[in-house]
Structures are given as C-alpha cells and as structure tokens.
Amino acid sequence: MSKNLSQMNGSIPTNAAQAKVKEYGATETVPHSTARNMSFWDMIATWIGANANNGTWYIGGVVAGCAFGGALAVTLIANPIAYIFMALVGYMGYKVGTSTMALTRPSFGVRGSSLPTIVNLTSFIGWTAVNTFIAAISISFLLKSSLGWPAFGEKGSAKAMIVGIIIMSILHLVSISLGHRSVKLIERVGMILVCILGIWETIVVLQHVSLSQIIHWRPSNALSLPFGTAMDTMAAFSLAWIPAIAEFTRYTRKKSSATIAPMIGANIGLFWFAFVGIIATIAAAISTGTYNPNNSDPSTIASQLGLGWLAMIVIVITSTTANAVNLMAAGISLTNLSKKVKPMPALWAATICAVLLTFVPLLFGSFLDSFIAFLDYLGMVLGPLIGIMVTDFFFVKKRHYDPSAFEDTKGKYWFTAGFHLPALISWAIGVVAFILLHNLSFFKESIGATYPVLVLSGLIYWLLTRNRK
C-alpha cells in the first residue's frame, strides 16, 4: 500500500512537469493549474520584441511619405486601435486556452476554420520572409565591410544575400527549437538588447539631423503618401499580430497578462521603432537630398547615415525576436488543419517554408511594391476576420466557448457540413467592401478602409446571427 501511495504521490509532479514542458496543439486547452507559465513581464517582453524590429522601422520609413506630422499621427491613431482588438482576442485565448485559429471554429465552423487558418499561415510565413530579407540586407552590409562582398543593391550582391538568408534561418530555427519556452527566453534577452541598442540608434540619428529639420521636411508631391492610405498600411501591419496573440495568452494565468501586458509591449515596440524609422528615413532624405521609400529599409538608411556595424547587428537581433513570434503563430496554426500534425514538426515546417519564400524578392521586382501589396492583402482579409471573431465571442456567444466541441463533427460548432455560412458570407462581403473602398478618394485621404470594413463585417455577422441560440 505504501508503495502504491508513493507511486501515486510521485505521479503528480511528474505529470505537472510534463504539462509545463508540453507544446500544445491548436485545439488543445492549456490547463490553468499546471502549464500556464508566461508572466505579465514575459508578455511585455514578447510584444516589445515582436514590434521593436526592422519591419516596424521599415513601415515607419514608408509612412514618412506623409511628412513627420502625418506619419506621427498615423502611428498614434492606427496602432492603439489595432492593439485594443489584440487585447480582446488575447482575452479569448486566456479564457478558452486554445490557439487563435482554434478560436475561429465557433464562428466559422470546425471545417470552416481551415480557411482563416490558411490565410494565417500565409500571413506569418510572409512576415517571417519579410523580416528575414531585411535582416539579410544588414548581413550583406556587414559582409561588405568585413570581406568586401557587394552589398544589397549593388551588382553581384546575390551571394551576400543568400549567405545572409541562411544565417538568419539558422537563428530562427534556434529561436523556436523548444516552442514557446525558447521564444520566451529569446524575447527576455532580446528586449534588453533591443532597448539598449534602440536608444543608441535614436540618439545617433538625431545627432546627424536636428529634430527641427525633420519636423519641417516635406516629400515631393509625387512621393507624398495620402493619410488614409498610410492608415491602411499601419492598420494592416498591427492587425497582422492579432492572429498570433492567443498562442501566448493561452499560457498566462492572469487576465491582465493576456490583455494589458500585450498592449503595453506592442505599443512601446511599435511607437519606438516606427519613430526611429520615420526620423531615420527623413534624416537620410535631408542628408542625401533624395527621398526614396524603396530605400527606407533599416540597413540602407543606417549605411547612408554612417551608423556602422552595430546598427546592422541591432537589425539582425530584432529580426530574430520578431520572427520567433511569427514562426510560433505559423506553426501552431498548421496544427489547426489536422491533429495528425504535431506542434514541433509544424514549427520546423513553417520555418523551412519561410526560408524558401525569402528568396522570392531576389528574383522579382521591387521589395517595396511586394511589401505594400502584402499589407493590402492583410488588411483586406484580416480586418473582416477579426471583426467576426470578436463579435461572435463577445456579442453572439456572450464570452462562452466550449473547447471540448472544437473537434466534434456532430457538435454545436459543426453547423452546415462543418461550415458556418453567416461567417463566410460576412467575411466575403468584408473583402469585397475593402476592395471597393480602399481606393476611393474619401477613404484614401481620411480614415482608410481597414477599420470601417472591420466594423462592417462584425455588424453584418451580428445581424445574420443575432436571433440564433
């Protein structure tokens, strides 16, 4: 009897330890008692690291086409709105315990959730490729200074870019090697380095060109960016993080860690590095006499301002911290398509796909054109999706989901052959509305189309489902 009692007592910490180290699939519920190990500060660090990166710098350089005042206004308006919605979806992940894409099952249906999951996969693999490419540009400049190889934009730079992509891909594989645990460690270390080096970059930029010069600079009419277009660009950039949020908030024990902490971290990282991107791009335009949004990537700007090798290392570090979140979201989304796909192999598969995609800009056209088209795609599909998700959980289902029914082919979330038609109809209307409104003068010059379409899709979904139990 004592032996049996000993075995029983011994099984408790063993099971608890297994729960703590397990990487949960998309539809698996993370238990509150044993496996929730991400603190308030972990979440702040994660989302500072996610947003304090080269992509945020680059987006700051793009919206600099609104001039300093317009770019700052866009940053201060578009992003906090997005992060309010991120907090709402973060709460959903905390309360239900599943991934973001699993949370689309009650609104889109058990089978229907595969559609937003595929969109999510393309989004986060695409973001990984974008950040990796920008970081590879930095490595090409480092290779130029150390080995004399041509840097990005120069004839024969393909060799340096390929080496840069390979180096970054190895770093990404390391960053997700232990799932959310290694991501947590990467973000803790990365936040400290990013803060130190980000302050240094901000100071150096302002030493080159005064803030007064930056404030009074204006782009040419041909290169100026309409305010509403900039709003859509920024909104899509920040909304793109929302489908990743529950991958982390499902591991939090407190509601504040799932809602307030991500908002704090994401806003700090975004405001800071977008600001650096805005002032650095304008400073480079003043110094060189030419504003070219095609060259607003951090590495080119850092090279033009003579910021040196340390700035390039910052860009590499920030790419690693951001892509750890991207790859985590992409890999866990993949497990929502089939329970046969296990979390860790899914993370590795997502990383390999992102590596392959990163080579595409070397073969085709302008990186800026590809980047803007990618953001337009995200705004078009993610705005309506998020509007439907939030409306379903908070207004239709009254903050109650049953995760035990997420896999049930005869349960409450099966709907019509596994698809919930009101969600699909609302999503389709939202996509069409974005296409129609995006280039209308009123929306281009004022509020953009992304947020109006988000609200419209949620409203249509509520109208289609309000009388259903």
Features:
469 residues, mainly alpha, Hydantoin permease, 20 helices, disordered N terminus, membrane, Pur-cyt_permease_Fcy2/21/22, transport
Helix/strand order, N-terminal first:
HHHHHHHHHHHHHHHHHHHH
Task: Determine the CATH topology.
Answer: Hydantoin permease
Into which percent range does the helicity of residues fall? over 70%
Q: What's the CATH class label?
A: Mainly Alpha
- Seen as an oligomer or otherwise, the chain set is single chain
Percent strand equals under 5%
Global Rg: 22 Å
**Broad structural category:** mainly alpha
Low-confidence stretches: 1-19
CATH architecture: Orthogonal Bundle
Residue-averaged pLDDT, rounded?
A: 85
| Total of DSSP H or I helical runs spanning 4+ residues | 20
What does the largest sheet look like?
none
Give the CATH H-level superfamily: Hydantoin permease
The general outline is globular
Counted beta strands: 0
Spatial gap, N to C terminus = 52 Å
For the record, the count of structural domains works out to 1
What would you say this structure looks like, in words?
By secondary structure, the chain is an all-alpha fold. The protein has one domain (34-370): Hydantoin permease. 72% of the residues lie in helices and 0% in strands. It has 20 helices and no strands. The chain starts with a helix and ends with a helix.
Q: Brief overview, please?
A:
Helix content is 72%, strand content 0%.
List the helices and strands and how they pair.
Blueprint: H1 2-21, H2 40-51, H3 54-63, H4 67-96, H5 105-108, H6 114-147, H7 158-175, H8 180-208, H9 211-216, H10 227-239, H11 242-249, H12 255-288, H13 298-304, H14 309-335, H15 343-358, H16 360-363, H17 367-396, H18 421-437, H19 441-445, H20 450-465
Helix pairs in contact: 2-8, 2-12, 2-14, 3-10, 3-12, 4-10, 4-11, 4-12, 4-17, 6-7, 6-13, 6-14, 6-15, 6-17, 7-14, 7-15, 8-12, 8-14, 10-17, 11-12, 11-14, 12-13, 14-15, 17-18, 17-20, 18-20
